[in-house]
Structures are given as structure tokens and as C-alpha cells.
Design goal:
Order of helices and strands: EHEHEHEHEHEHE
Bound molecules: S-adenosylmethionine
Largest sheet: 7 strands, mixed
Strand order of the largest sheet: 3-2-1-4-5-7-6
Helix content: 25-40%
CATH topology: Rossmann fold
Radius of gyration: 16 Å
Strand content: 25-35%
Shape: globular
Number of strands: 7
Number of helices: 6
CATH superfamily: Vaccinia Virus protein VP39
CATH architecture: 3-Layer(aba) Sandwich
Distance between the termini: 34 Å
CATH class: Alpha Beta
Length: about 180
Amino acid sequence: MRDIWLEIGFGGGEHLVWQIANNPRVGVIGAEPYLNGVVSAMDALVTRELTERVRVYADDVLALLRVLPPECLSRAFMLFPDPWPKKRHRERRLFSAHLLDKLAPLLRPGAEFRFASDIDDYAEVAIEAARAHPAFDIARVFTTENRDTMPDWPVTRYEEKARKQGRGATFLVLQRAVEPKV
Ligand SMILES: C[S@@+](CC[C@H](N)C(=O)[O-])C[C@H]1O[C@@H](n2cnc3c(N)ncnc32)[C@H](O)[C@@H]1O
């Protein structure tokens, strides 16, 4: 296996299963504390005989990030993290400068970190945090209108749910900077 990818909060695992099925030389670690989601993902992986290249961490990703070795990941995903829309709950949002601090040393230089949200102010804060972070560049930002320009980025369950409720999404591709930004 050449590359290890990390999916944070994979929910029911649809995206993780698609990636593992379509990238035969990649291993994926999925971090997801919601046990029904873990069971759904495992069920799909077992049915399709795709378990070999997957490892599931059924808990808070921040604990996992503390033990992974430096530069072990060549891609990471965080798709539609819990929105915590109320102002007093914003601190609970998983995408933050703190998360970028913890993730950055684990990504190889040049590695992608893909993020998506259907909550406008979450996407804006994510873009700002990425811009300000010395270890990340922003490679791409696009919205639902340009969704088909990324054929290797399948629609997730939450993206579909948001669409049905009339909400588009913002998609962000961060790149682990090769040299620290000045
Ligand atoms: C809104 S759901 C999105 C699921 C999936 N990515 C999708 O787009 O359909 C957010 C997921 O993040 C998971 N999550 C929340 N906190 C987490 C944490 N600290 N570490 C890993 N996953 C977390 C939740 O359990 C939930 O399944």
C-alpha cells in the first residue's frame, strides 16, 4: 500500500467505501464515534470484501491524531462535520485552527485535506482558519454549482440531505504547504 488516507467523521461510510473501492492502492483510516455509522460502514465493507485496506477508529479523532506518526497521511477528509449552528455552541465545531495544528504534522507535504460544509458561516470560518494557518495553502474553493469538476469526490449522505432541504455546499481543498508560509 502506497498511501494512507484519513476520513474524519465518516457517518454511514458511503464516501469511505467509495474511496476504498475506487483507489485500490490506498488504505483508509476512518474515525467515527457514532457506532451505528461504524456498523453501516463495516457492513458495506464486508459485503464488498473491502475490509483489508480499512482501519476504523470508533472514537474522537483528536485522540487518534495524538498517536499517529509524522507525515503518515497523504490525504484527509472532513465532510459535513456537525454544524453546531447556535452561537453558544460554536466552540464545539471540529474544524478549527486547533485541529489544523494537530493534523498538519501528520500530513505529507503537498497532501490534500478536503473539507465540505453546507453551513455558510462554517465554510467561511474554515477558509479563514486555513488562510491564516502557516502549514496550509488553499488549493481550491468551489460550490455545489461546480460540483461535477471533482469526479473523485462522491456525494455524501449529509450533502444529499442538505440538497433536499435546498442548501448548497462549499467545498474546500487545502494543501499541506511544502514550505511553511511566511
Ligand atoms: C453531520 S455528520 C456527516 C457524516 C458524513 N461525513 C456525511 O457527510 O454524510 C458528522 C459526523 O462527524 C462525526 N463526528 C463528530 N465529532 C467527531 C469527532 N470528534 N471525531 C470524529 N468524528 C466525529 C459525527 O459522529 C457524525 O457522524
